[in-house]
Amino acid sequence: MNRRLPGRVLLAILLGLATGLSLALVAGPAKAAGTRIKDIATLKGVRDNQLFGYGLVTGLQGTGDTLRNAQFTEQSLQSLLDRLGINVRDARLRTRNIAAVMVTADLPPYTGTGSRIDVTVTSMGDATSLKGGTLLMTPLTGGDGLVYAAAQGPLAVSGFTVQGAAEQLTQGVPTAGRIPNGALIEREVPGTFRDLPELVFELKNPDFKSSIQISDAINTWSLSAFGRRIASARDQRSVVVMRGRQMNQTRLVAEIGDLTIQPDTPARVVVDQRTGTVVIGRNVQISTVAVTHGNLTVRVTEMPEVSQPAPFSNGETRVVPRTEVAAQEQMGKLAILGGSDLQTLVRGLNQVGLKPTDIIAILQAVKTAGALQAELVVQ
To answer: What pTM, to 2 d.p., does this model score?
Structure first.
């Protein structure tokens, strides 16, 4: 049953809708959030250490190394069996269930003894797949030659290979895999966080303006927290923060890492000619220029003909060359490119209707003409 709303209730609803609409119109789009300092800068001295080692993977289903082709695998197997008291020096081993691999890992900073890290295992010989294999205990050494971890465990391989009599299908990389938490830390890297002589934040993309913004953001926060400035920009790469006693150093770094800024990026255009990829930075500008581009296609076709002599002429049958050359040039539109922002530039390039390879050629020509106000990086 329908009921009519009282006049006061209806008036209140209309006023509420009008108020909400006016607030939405006044508010407008939300302001873009900044970037955290921890995402664009790293603390100097707090870094990973690379580890590597040589090992053997066993348990493969006939997809391991061919011992005749991979002699290092055979020598490693013989040495392993000798340590276990089995003498196979004079025997000809023909097993295909073992493969020689390289094991790599990244040791996080300040990792204690007994912790576990992930390792990556890659084949060295002619093994076709490491799926189903188990890595034997492999010492992992650092750049100083000391053993910092030991890796062992079953491999997780995502790629596979299926082969028939006349066709083979390969997806992913079956000769590489990972072992989650496969390495056990046996030695700690010397040094602790407290031993750092100073707190220096290094920018991943060095820039003078970004360095100043980080210093200002830290000083603005420190003035409200401690009543003094604690940061100063050393150069375009590093920002130095004074260590104080008002706050724990770990908490100090955590608080600074959550501060946000708007990092400045240089005007740069990156071009990859192999894949046809073009990446244009936000600050790229092009002075007003007129551009036309047309594709010229030249086709050369060889159509040889056979010359047959007349009957009873004692002639020879010869092949007479015949070449057809055709040139075709497409119509090119003359367009004016130029803009103060990235959106205007992209709109102008799209109006010409070009392929990525054509855009690369135009950008190179515009750079030569001096109208591209950015750095052009060709890969």
So the answer is: 0.67
E strand or H helix at 349, and its extent? helix 342-352
CA pair distance 292, 335, nearest whole angstrom: 6
Tens digits of pLDDT across the chain (379 residues): 444 545 444 334 333 434 343 333 333 344 446 889 999 999 888 888 999 999 999 999 888 899 888 888 888 888 888 888 888 877 778 888 999 999 999 999 888 899 999 999 999 988 989 999 999 999 999 989 999 999 999 999 987 777 776 777 777 889 999 999 999 999 988 877 877 778 899 999 888 999 999 999 999 998 988 888 989 999 889 999 987 776 788 888 899 999 999 888 888 888 887 887 888 877 787 777 776 666 555 566 667 777 777 776 677 777 777 766 665 555 555 555 555 555 666 666 666 666 777 777 777 887 887 877 888 888 7
How are beta strands 268-272 and 277-280 bridged, if at all? antiparallel
Identify the CA nearest to 53 among candidates 152, 187, 188, 173.
Answer: 152
Taking phi first (over 0 means left), then psi (-120 to 50 degrees means alpha), and beta for anything else, what does residue 16 get?
A: alpha
Domain boundaries, given as residue ranges, for the chain: 49-157+170-185, 197-261, 268-307+318-378
Query: Would you say 176 and 121 are in contact if contact means Cβ atoms under 8 Å apart?
Result: yes
What is Dmax (Cα atoms) for the chain? 118
Neighbouring C-beta atoms of residue 273, cutoff 10 Å: 14
The tokens for 89 are 């020096």
Q: CA-to-CA distance for 172 and 278, rounded, in angstroms?
A: 27
Q: Within 10 A of 65 (CB to CB), how many other CB atoms are there? A: 29
CA atoms within 13 Å, Cβ hemisphere of 286: 28
Neighbours of 239 (CB within 10 A): 25
Rounded CA separation 321/333 (Å): 39
What CATH number has the domain spanning 197-261? Answer: 3.30.70
C-beta separation of 336 from 288 below 8 A: yes
Phi, psi (degrees; rounded to nearest 5) at 64 = -85, -165
